[in-house]
Amino acid sequence: MNVRLRYPTFLAILVLTGCSMAPRYTAPAPPVPATFPSAPAGAGTAAAETGWKDFYTDPRLQKVLELALANNRDLRIAALNTQKAGAYYRIQRAALLPTVNAAATYYRGSVVATELGVPPGIGATVGISAWEVDFFGRLTSLKEEALQNYLGTEEAQRAAQVSLLAQVANGYLVLAGDQESLGLAQDTVDSQYSSHDLIQRSFLVGSGSEIDVRRAQVSLENARVDLANYTRMVALDRSTLDLLVGASVPAELLPESLSSLSPLRADFAVGTPSEVLLRRPDILMAEDQLKAANADIGAARAALFPSITLTTTAGTYGSSLDAMFKPGSDYWLVYPQLNFPIFDWGARRANLKVSETQREIYVAQYEKAIQTAFKEVRDALVQRDTLHQQEVAQAALAEATEATYRLAQARFQVGMDSSLSVLDAQRTSNAARLGLIALRQVEAGNLVTLYKALGGGVR
Known about the structure:
- By secondary structure, the protein is of the alpha+beta class.
- The protein has a domain at about 35-95 and about 135-305 and about 365-455: Outer membrane efflux proteins (OEP) (Up-down Bundle), CATH 1.20.1600.10.
- The protein has eleven helices and four strands.
- It has helices spanning about 5-15, 50-55, 60-70, 75-95, 110-115, 140-205, 210-245, 275, 280-300, 345-415, 420-455, and strands at about 100-105, 120-135, 305-320, 330-340.
- It has a four-stranded antiparallel β-sheet with strand order 1-2-3-4, with no helix packed on it.
- Helix 4 (about 75-95) runs antiparallel to helix 6 and helix 7 (about 210-245) packs parallel to helix 11 (about 420-455).
- The radius of gyration is 37 Å and the shape is elongated.
- The two termini are about 60 Å apart.
């Protein structure tokens, strides 16, 4: 039956819509201690507030990181996912409002007059087609779910940037360390060639033994093996860095050695776990997903209740264009439809159970994200102090073995010591220096990991 729609009635419908049956959201308590063990005291700028250009101070590394932000495909995918989620949110938001359509008609002929009961003429209509009146908040909950998913993808994009910066920086540091080790290996080969030639000449003039020559040859071949190994590692490091950056890194931006890089900034504050939780984008993303699941419960609950769709038409009609605007030629029609669920074999109840279970899954994922973040920060802090102590001791060891090697060379040249002592001292010194390079690379990588774990790299 056609019913004339009154303006007060239409406004009342709009006022009554938009409630939500979603449960009130409460963030779960963080399942971690209130403080980080081994956290240093003192004030400073939080890592999340320390821009990545302030942390990565080396100019060449900064340019490589800028290349990565512009070219990395994973980061590009994350940005596109954010755009897609934003568009989906706008779709769900638009579903709350009626879609208005306009149409123009022209009637002519006896068939129209007979079947529709109107004389031939022309008309124009504006109407709403099958608009769901959101009495129980189903569409409102779906809009909230889409919003939280959109916010979650924004945080996912930020998390991808934080992770990318750390990966590229670590790859750059590994390349720098291996490049420095390669230089040391080349120097060792050159030195071993000189030692081998000297010992062989001594053997030829009768002042040395064949065993000394063989030992020198063994040391030389070991050095050549190390040189080939580090040459391969540098090539692989460059390939990995190119993949992370998403483009070929220019040779002028590559590091010559680890010691040639500007130091990383290390004076940022650690803070408390609760402060870290407010800054890490991956945890914020997990909470947004939890909020979306909470809103989905509201939509599932609303689906248990009747739904109302409304179709309205407003228009004017006349036998001619002039007649369309005469008094009495306009009309309003409304077609409400009530869909009352009676029996669906438990499908809607099962759908509600799915939504509630999904929320519990996201609660567990949110808590796991917090625990993972806490572990990352704790492990980085524990390693920081011990790595520094180890690096200091390794530096002293490298200095001592280098001094021993110089003394052994001097004693050998004046005939006070054997070539075996020189070769052993050189091998020990070389191993200590390689160990020092490796430790410095690990220590710098640990600082990068701590910066990332504390949420640094968004700005």
